[in-house]
Design brief:
Layout lengths: L1 H10 L11 H5 L14 H24 L7 H6 L2 H24 L12 H9 L1 H6 L10 H31 L14
Length: about 190
């Protein structure tokens, strides 16, 4: 399929520009005719079509064989591994953002932050009972909820950091985020 698309790109008039033209232009239809054909470029149309075809192939394959996507999928979704990985990703992403910001602004190195408190408490949960003959900091049945709280805490801190940095940069440069600030017209 990919080879066919490359050959068509070489043979068709306009080369790669062809894929950006609308289906209506290629078929030579007047704007009032065939309103179900939109003005989307051909590449968008082909991508949407391939998503539908490939998705139906995957669904048909699962129904034919009776096999699920992964034998581990129920365990991944219902246990604490996925939220823990997202928590670690948010925490380390936050720390990387702080390190980059400190480097760019020539500020001192940002030492560990309060975002790591849940990680430290969670890592102390395992060895403390063994070494000091204590009960656990929290029972096993609350471990999943603890990780979800740590994830929410991490996301909140990371979101606050991102919004603060974006607002500070936009205020400093007198720009808007994700839009163009047009100068005010004098009347």
């Amino acid at each position: 399929m990919l080879v066919i698309l490359f050959v068509l790109t070489g043979l068709l008039e306009g080369g790669p520009v062809f894929w950006g033209s609308s289906l209506r232009e290629v078929l030579g239809l007047a704007p009032g005719r065939c309103t179900w054909i939109s003005d989307y470029p051909i590449n968008v149309f082909l991508n949407a079509l391939s998503i539908l075809v490939l998705g139906s192939n995957v669904v048909n394959g699962f129904h034919r064989t009776g096999v699920q996507l992964s034998p581990y999928l129920p365990r991944i979704v219902t246990h604490h591994l996925t939220p823990f990985m997202i928590y670690c990703g948010c925490s380390f992403g936050y720390m990387a953002g702080r390190i980059i910001l400190a480097h760019v602004t020539k500020a001192p190195f940002p030492f560990p932050h309060r975002v790591y408190i849940p990680l430290i408490l969670g890592s102390l949960k395992a060895p403390l009972p063994a070494y000091f003959n204590w009960n656990s900091l929290f029972p096993m049945e609350y471990e999943y909820h603890y990780i979800l709280l740590a994830l929410a805490y991490s996301i909140a801190i990371y979101a606050h950091f991102a919004i603060s940095v974006i607002c500070e940069v936009c205020d400093y440069f007198d720009i808007w985020c994700l839009s163009i600030k047009h100068p005010k017209k004098q009347l």
